[in-house]
Amino acid sequence: MKSTIFFALFLFCAFTTSYLPSAIGDFVLDVEGNPLENGGTYYILSDITAFGGIRAAPTGNERCPLSVVQSRNALDKGIGTIISSRLRIRFIAEGHPLSIKFGPFAVILLCAGIPTEWSVVEGLPEGPAVKIGENKDAVDGYFKLKRVSEEFNNYKLLFCPQAEDSECGDIGISIDQDDGTRRLVVSKNKPLLVQFQKLDEDSLVKKNHGLSRSE
């Protein structure tokens, strides 16, 4: 009986020392060092303090804020964003297929009812761009996150088309030459590096407003 117990304890110790640290290391961490919760709401912040967070804004001839952009106001944290996976998991890890959308308090006053889930739309002058709303040119695919720094909780966002033989592309920034708007696009250049700050519902009610204005 004792030998059975000792063997069970040995297996438990081997499991906890060899498996758990690597599993925890794969979690996507917020600015506080906590793993991202599946379905949690976060500010997506730039790792460069000269720019603000991620929000929606109208670009080109859009009458509604359909483009996902990076705020040029360093004090603007952007809009609360829900990051979720269809996998039955509690926490988000690197490589998990993700859907991303602006949270329930991101109300578009003049364009109520527009879906706020992110998608990548092709056929635009700036290239494949991250948009919200329904669009017939949206690419079937998903987002995922990858750590880029062992020292800091910095990540890059990628978009992966569902088509066979398609490679995931980094999400970067395309700067509008006319007004300086910083659009999120699939880019082969320098990726946008981001961090995540968790929100609670009280913060969302107080801070998530003005979605229809461009920063």
Explain how this protein is built.
It is a single chain. Helix content is 14%, strand content 29%. The protein has 215 residues and is of the alpha+beta class. It has one domain: Trefoil (Acidic Fibroblast Growth Factor, subunit A) (Trefoil). The strands form two sheets. Strands 1, 2, 3, 4, 5, 8, 9, 10, 11 and 12 form a ten-stranded antiparallel beta sheet that branches. It has a two-stranded antiparallel ribbon with strand order 6-7. A hairpin with a 7-residue loop joins strand 8 and strand 9 (155-161). Residues 1-25 and 208-215 have low confidence and may be disordered.
Indicate the CATH class: Mainly Beta
Secondary-structure-derived class: alpha+beta
Give the number of DSSP strands.
Answer: 12
- Predict the CATH topology: Trefoil (Acidic Fibroblast Growth Factor, subunit A)
Largest sheet properties: 10 strands, antiparallel
CATH architecture: Trefoil
Overall structural domain count: 1
Mean pLDDT: 82
Quote the distance from N terminus to C terminus: 69 Å
GO molecular function, one term: endopeptidase inhibitor activity
InterPro entries: Kunitz_inhibitor_STI-like_sf, Prot_inh_Kunz-lg
Family: Belongs to the protease inhibitor I3 (leguminous Kunitz-type inhibitor) family.
Signal peptide: 1-25
